[in-house]
């Protein structure tokens, strides 16, 4: 089969479009013909230097939608021809966290496309338990755009921060994968959404998606803008993933009893906090790590009902994966970029078609 592989970590030039052997499934696995695979910022870091990456040569891609074309001899709940999306994590299923239903906390879990070969390929294998069926209401690209971005954003807002209707919520970087998902989920939950971006064009897209108040953080201190917009009160909830570059302004944007939930450190992992202000304002700070398969099933249902509509920046042929990495590194994307095997025509996104 054709795949994008890298034999060693490094720059974009390490990505090669090559012939590789088809994956061979074991009795509990299924083989998926990939129709769409979304690109994540983690792919950039994995290609660059993340030490967890295996095997080599490596095939990236954790967000995969396609058709089941082969099932192992011990698989009874999945059939050839099923239209599916894959849950991105393979938990051990045996540790205390897995048995508690917190498989996102499993110390032994592996991420497809990060610690296994992934979906930048014509075929990918996965355990049958990772399969989530999708209806024809969802395009393959819509489905592929969901797992990492929406699951992360859902777990942050709904599960960890317990978002409430009427909350004032600041979503950082509306144009990022997790930010665009967070914006939609916060609106679905009845929040008033404030958001940031580096360009007015991205902010215009955010307003089209329903953002109530937008801030170009390259022109103004976003914490000051938030305090101005809320009459000095601040927001109830901040959705963080940018890390060191925004941390202090994010904390300063919080109202009394405010909650900050974070999943990422794109700009660095050390941030300071004024501890006295934190306890005087009764601020809560929460970490959040991906999410569970049960949450992902809920999100897929909401997408099938049209209540969540993945934002697809563009669809590229698999052979142009390097271009996708270049666009993301340059922050020229809004939402997700999807790769489709060369020759496979895919409709982009139901949301894109509607606006
Ligand atoms: N813990 C988890 O489970 C989990 C899951 C998914 C993602 N994440 C993390 O969440 C973060 C966002 O992921 P993503 O896939 O949504 O990324 P993405 O689509 O590439 O978006 C990152 C955004 O960060 C903003 N940004 C601000 N300052 C930046 C800088 N100096 N360099 C680069 N970007 C900067 C950019 O928006 P502007 O142009 O508007 O500034 C950019 O669009 C990543 O750190 C990722 O690893 C964590
Ligand atoms: Zn486990």
CATH superfamily heading of the largest domain: Medium-chain alcohol dehydrogenases, catalytic domain
CATH fold field value of the largest domain: Quinone Oxidoreductase, Chain A, domain 1
- Low-pLDDT stretches are 350-355
Helical content band? 25-40%
Question: Largest beta sheet, briefly?
Answer: 7 strands, mixed
The rounded Rg comes to 20 Å
Would you spell out the secondary-structure blueprint of this structure?
Elements: E1 2-5, E2 16-19, E3 29-38, H1 41-48, E4 63-71, E5 83-86, E6 89-90, H2 96-99, E7 110-111, E8 123-127, E9 131-133, H3 140-144, H4 147-160, E10 168-171, H5 177-188, E11 192-197, H6 200-208, E12 213-216, H7 222-229, E13 235-240, H8 247-252, E14 254-262, H9 275-280, E15 284-287, H10 293-304, E16 312-317, H11 321-329, E17 336-340, H12 350-354
Parallel strand pairs: 10-11, 10-13, 11-12, 13-14, 14-15, 16-17
Antiparallel strand pairs: 1-2, 3-4, 3-8, 3-17, 4-5, 5-9, 6-7
Helix pairs in contact: 4-5
Describe what you observe in this structure.
With 355 residues, the protein is an alpha/beta fold. It has two domains: 2-145 and 310-354, Alpha-Beta Complex (Quinone Oxidoreductase, Chain A, domain 1), CATH 3.90.180.10; 150-287, 3-Layer(aba) Sandwich (Rossmann fold), CATH 3.40.50. It is built from twelve helices and 17 strands. The strands form four sheets. Strands 3, 4, 5, 8, 9, 16 and 17 form a seven-stranded mixed sheet that branches. Strands 12-11-10-13-14-15 form a six-stranded parallel sheet, with helices on both faces. Helix 4 crosses helix 5 (177-188). It is globular, with a radius of gyration of 20 Å. The chain starts with a strand and ends with a helix. The relative contact order is 0.16. Bound molecules: NADP nicotinamide-adenine-dinucleotide phosphate (NAP) and zinc ion.
């Amino acid at each position: 089969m054709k795949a994008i592989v890298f034999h060693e970590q490094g720059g974009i030039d390490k990505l090669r479009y090559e012939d590789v052997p088809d994956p061979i499934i074991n009795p509990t696995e299924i083989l998926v013909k990939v129709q769409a695979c979304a690109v994540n910022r983690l792919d950039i870091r994995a290609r660059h230097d993340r030490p967890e990456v295996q095997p080599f040569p490596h095939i990236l891609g954790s967000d995969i939608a396609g058709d089941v074309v082969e099932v192992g001899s011990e698989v009874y709940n999945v059939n050839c021809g099923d239209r599916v999306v894959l849950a991105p994590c393979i938990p051990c299923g045996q540790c205390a966290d897995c048995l508690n239903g917190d498989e996102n906390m499993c110390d032994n879990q592996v991420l497809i496309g990060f610690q296994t070969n992934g979906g930048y390929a014509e075929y990918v294998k996965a355990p049958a338990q990772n399969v989530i069926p999708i209806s024809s209401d969802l395009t393959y690209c819509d489905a592929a755009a969901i797992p990492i971005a929406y699951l992360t954003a859902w777990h942050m807002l709904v599960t960890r921060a317990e978002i409430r209707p009427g909350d004032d919520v600041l979503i950082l970087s509306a144009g990022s994968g997790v930010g665009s998902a967070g914006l939609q989920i916060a609106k679905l939950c009845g929040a008033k959404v404030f958001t940031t971006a580096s360009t007015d064009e991205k902010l215009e897209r955010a307003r089209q998606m329903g953002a109530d108040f937008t801030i170009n953080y390259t022109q103004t201190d976003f914490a000051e803008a938030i305090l101005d917009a809320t009459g000095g009160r601040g927001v109830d909830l901040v959705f963080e993933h940018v890390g060191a570059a925004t941390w202090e302004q994010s904390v300063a944007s919080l109202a009394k009893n405010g909650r900050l939930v974070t999943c990422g450190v794109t700009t660095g992992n050390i941030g300071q906090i004024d501890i006295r202000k934190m306890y005087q304002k009764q601020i809560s700070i929460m970490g959040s790590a991906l999410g569970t398969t049960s949450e992902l099933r809920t999100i897929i249902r909401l997408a099938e009902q049209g209540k969540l509509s993945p934002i697809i920046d563009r669809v590229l042929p698999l052979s142009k994966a390097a271009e996708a990495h270049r666009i993301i590194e340059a922050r020229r994307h809004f939402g997700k970029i999807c790769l489709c095997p060369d020759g496979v025509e895919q409709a982009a996104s139901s949301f894109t078609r509607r606006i």
